[in-house]
Amino acid sequence: MSAPTLAQDPAAKDRRPRRPRAGAVRHPDAGLAKAVRRNLTAHGFLIGAVLCFAFFSWYPIVREFLLAFQKTENGTVSWVGWDNFVTVWNDPAFGQAWRNTLWFTVLALVLGFAVPFLTALVINEFRHGQGYLRLLVYLPVMLPPTASVLLFKYLYDPGYGMFNEVLGVFGLPARQWLQDPDTAMLSVVVASTWMNMGGATLIYLAALQSVPGELYEAAELDGAGLVRKVWHVTIPQTRLVLLLMLLMQVIATMQVFIEPFLLTGGAGPEGSTTTVVYLIYQYAFNFNNYGAAAALGLLLLVLLAGFSAVYTRLSRAADE
Q: H helices of 143-289, where?
């Protein structure tokens, strides 16, 4: 059987291979220009982000590094080497500030790391109303930090504060929560935990909901109770999130400033709430010694960077 001709099959004309017309040769740079035009908006946003990071993050870091080795007197800037670090080191408040900061970090890890995780476990057990519970937990994060701190300052008031009212119900004596060196730091930690636990709780809750239900069913068949299921199923399955949140918690708590500054005036009774960042604030804005403030800030930066590097290395080694 012979193939149909163009006269018999008009559609065969459209199936014939077409030759490129003369003068229609595509320039090799045309594809590149088209790609640039197509991605011009993306490049614009990328350049804007880089400029923002450079101006608001990288430049202050470089500027702080330079200030740590400089001194300004009567408008004249001079290099002083390690003198600013020596000044900070010899300050009697230096050791106390570091001890208070580390103590705050330990207390914040006990409360601020464990309480959000336990709250997420409880919310995850509810089959209905999780949306309302998530909103309720996250509400403190949406409040302005100053308003939250002033609320706790009212609750801690030794005369009419709610905490002392609760102690009176049980026949216990009233406490000077913010005026007593023994309870001032703990009071600051409680306020900080309530203010910041919402975001961590939602992250833990998302991690818990990603755990396969078959694992819990298998654990129940093996006779595991609630505690064993959490220890052998929940924690191993959410280990990466827990490690990341632990690192972020340490970095955040080592830079605490707002809570002690507003609750106890910064230093607190007998200097019990003086932190490293508050000491930086004093050097810069009370003593006008920006070189010493930059030196102390650089020490904090190096410590946190070193901790993050070691922590990441140990976590990676444990995974391998």
A: 145-155, 162-169, 184-209, 213-221, 226-229, 235-237, 239-253, 258-263, 276-281
Phi-psi region of 171 (alpha: psi -120 to 50; beta: other; left: phi over 0): left
Asked if 234 and 89 count as a contact pair (C-beta separation under 8 A), the reply is no
Amino acid 30: pLDDT: 63
The per-residue pLDDT for 160 is: 82
- H or E segment and range at residue 72: strand 70-73
- C-alpha triplet 81, 82, 85: angle, nearest 5°: 145
- Which pTM does this prediction carry? 0.79
CB 287 within 8 A of CB 91: no
What single letter denotes the amino acid at residue 156?
A: Y
Residues 6+ apart with CB under 8 A from 293: 67, 280, 281, 283, 284
* Sequence-distant (≥ 6) Cβ neighbours of residue 192 within 8 angstroms: 108, 112, 253, 256, 259
Residue whose entry in the numeric block shows the structure tokens 């070193």: 306
For residue 265, give both structure tokens.
Answer: 């005036």
List, for the chain, all residue ranges whose pLDDT scores fall below the cut of 70: 1-32, 36, 318-320
What is the rounded CA–CA span in Å between residue 271 and residue 274?
Answer: 5
Q: What is the DSSP letter of 70?
A: E
pLDDT at 278: 93
What's the burial of 223, exposed, middle or buried (CB within 10 Å: 0-12/13-18/19+)?
Answer: exposed
- Alpha carbon distance 76, 250 (integer Å): 38
